[in-house]
Amino acid sequence: xxxxxxxxxxxxxxxxxxxxxxxxxxxRSTCFLPTKExxxxxxxxxxxxxxxxxEIEIESINKGVWSWSRGAVSHWD
Length: 77
Description:
Layout: E1 2-8, E2 15-17, E3 22-24, H1 36-46, E4 51-62, E5 65-70
Antiparallel strand pairs: 1-4, 2-3, 4-5
């Protein structure tokens, strides 16, 4: 399954939690959006250029534990 999350550009593995409306060090389901366009719209409307949309691929879910991979983030990789 593919989702998008909003990442803070200048600190690795910091995600924007849409439910809490704040940054989080944990990637949770409340960080997921269905499209890159939706993530970009939230960045444009509510956040700043310090955030970027990142593709998240859920690879497996086993007994509530998930494994995932992410797309490239220029300042992280």
